[in-house]
């Protein structure tokens, strides 16, 4: 799985790509992973959009998403004209795997110079509110968290977060694996350049089966076929 931070591009301040970039400069994956997963054997610090250990895995440059640069983030906020209006960060309280992501984001963004209004709600309220296009003062939002399973983020076509459409089309039409790798990197670079969203840690969901259950396949998602019970 991969934790995700998403920005509302439609309203201030994250309609400004420099302010989104400042937010990404504040990210430190290990803070999220320690707060949510806890056990190191079940998580991995990974700055690759398309999952570490895959053909399309490329580290983000300059320690982005792994090692914060708060001073650079503050400089970007000043350059972009951020006026100190609090950003509304929606926290889900009913999905345990996401509950602790928002407090981490609040702490990191505040170190980068943002003011943050974290508002707690159940997941259904959060996803309903996410559809609103109005500014936060009228019931909208600025930031929230979600996560993806690896099968949905292994390449530029399967992920729903990337919007580098021309590059994604090129990837879909290319048959040379090496050229596809280069295109995947270009899509990731474009996503970081425009700060479309942030991937903030990779983690693994353990599974348990009784001794008389066999055939469980190792896969990027839970697979419920091929199983036999003795």
At a glance:
Helix content is 33%, strand content 16%.
List the helices and strands and how they pair.
Blueprint: E1 2-7, H1 17-25, H2 29-36, E2 43-44, H3 70-80, E3 87-92, H4 96-99, H5 101-111, E4 116-121, H6 123-130, E5 143-148, H7 165-173, H8 177-193, E6 197-203, E7 213-214, E8 228-229
Parallel strand pairs: 3-4
Antiparallel strand pairs: 1-5, 1-6, 2-6, 7-8
Question: What do these coordinates show?
Answer:
The protein is built from eight helices and eight strands; from the N terminus they run βααβαβααβαβααβββ. The chain is an alpha+beta fold and 230 residues long. The protein starts with a strand and ends with a strand. Helix 1 (17-25) runs antiparallel to helix 3 (70-80) and helix 7 packs antiparallel against helix 8. It is 33% helix and 16% strand. The strands form three sheets. The chain has a four-stranded antiparallel sheet with strand order 2-6-1-5, with helices on one face. The longest helix is centred in the C-terminal third of the chain and has 17 residues, at 177-193. The mean pLDDT is 94.
């Amino acid at each position: 799985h991969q934790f995700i931070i998403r920005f509302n591009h439609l309203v201030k301040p994250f309609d400004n790509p420099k302010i989104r970039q400042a937010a990404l400069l504040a990210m430190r994956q290990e803070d999220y992973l320690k707060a949510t997963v806890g056990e190191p054997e079940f998580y991995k610090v990974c700055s690759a959009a398309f999952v570490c250990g895959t053909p399309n895995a490329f580290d983000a440059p300059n320690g982005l998403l792994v090692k914060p640069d708060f001073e650079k983030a503050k400089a970007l906020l000043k350059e972009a004209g951020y006026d100190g209006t609090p950003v509304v960060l929606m926290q889900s309280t009913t999905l345990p795997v996401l509950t602790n992501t928002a407090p981490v984001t609040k702490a990191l963004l505040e170190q980068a110079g943002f003011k943050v209004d974290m508002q707690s709600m159940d997941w259904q309220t959060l996803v309903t509110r996410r559809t609103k296009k109005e500014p936060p003062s009228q019931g909208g939002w600025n930031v929230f968290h979600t996560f993806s399973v690896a099968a949905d983020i292994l390449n530029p076509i399967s992920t729903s977060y990337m919007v580098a459409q021309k590059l994604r089309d090129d990837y879909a039409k290319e048959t040379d694996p090496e050229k596809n790798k280069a295109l995947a990197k270009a899509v990731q670079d474009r996503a970081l350049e425009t700060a479309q969203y942030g991937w903030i840690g990779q983690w693994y969901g353990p599974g348990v089966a009784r001794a008389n259950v066999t055939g469980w396949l190792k896969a990027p998602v839970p697979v419920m076929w091929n199983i036999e019970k003795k």
